Automatic annotation (TrEMBL):
Family annotation (CDD domains): trans_reg_C
Domain of life: Bacteria
UniProt DNA-binding region: 66-165
Pfam families: Trans_reg_C
InterPro entries in UniProt: OmpR/PhoB-type_DNA-bd, Sig_transdc_resp-reg_C-effctor, WH-like_DNA-bd_sf
Keyword tags: DNA-binding, Phosphoprotein, Two-component regulatory system
SUPFAM superfamilies in the record: C-terminal effector domain of the bipartite response regulators
MF-aspect GO terms: DNA binding
Full protein name: Transcriptional regulatory protein WalR
Length: 167
């Protein structure tokens, strides 16, 4: 079975050695500059993680390093404000995206409707329980394989909602 990802820890000595070695080679890849820049950013503390992706025949690599959130078949990309499910883009309204992103970046944490409202709308809570519930319902219809048995946005009865920490 092919793994989706592999995480390898690298210390500063290895990063420096790899950087120095790559710098001396005459690499013919059009991506070598990006790799060197990524290693430089890693060594300077500009980034904490460097993600590498392989380009196959006929494929284009477009900014492999991103700040996406990945949970099962769901991908959330805050910079481009895109959500993909199984590789297919899901069209969300701005508030649906904001709610999903807020919950996902706080994976496993339970939030009341009031907390979600204040985080997403950035204003005082005005008894908008049904408003939040409606947004969650619409969001689930778009991202959940079975909205009646959600996998991603879970209801914590009597409290509120959370983004799953099981995937």
């Amino acid at each position: 079975m092919k793994k989706n990802a592999s995480f390898i820890i690298m210390d500063s000595a290895l990063a420096k050695s790899l950087y120095d070695t790559l710098k001396t080679l005459e690499l013919k890849s059009k991506y070598s500059h990006e790799l060197l820049q990524g290693l430089e950013d890693l060594m300077e503390g500009e980034v904490a993680t460097l993600m590498l992706g392989m380009v196959g025949p006929g494929e284009n690599l477009v900014h492999v390093v991103d700040d996406g959130i990945y949970a099962g078949a769901l991908e959330i990309h805050p910079k481009s404000r895109k959500v993909l499910h199984g590789g297919i883009e899901v069209n969300l309204t701005p508030k649906e995206f904001d709610i999903l992103y807020f919950l996902a970046k706080n994976k496993g944490a339970v939030f009341t409707k009031e907390q979600i409202y204040q985080a997403v709308w950035e204003e005082d809570y005005l008894m908008a329980d049904s408003n939040i519930m409606a947004f969650i319902r619409k969001l689930r219809k778009k991202i959940e394989p079975d909205p009646d048995a959600p996998e991603y946005v879970l209801t914590i009865w009597g409290i509120g909602y959370k983004f799953t920490d099981r995937i």
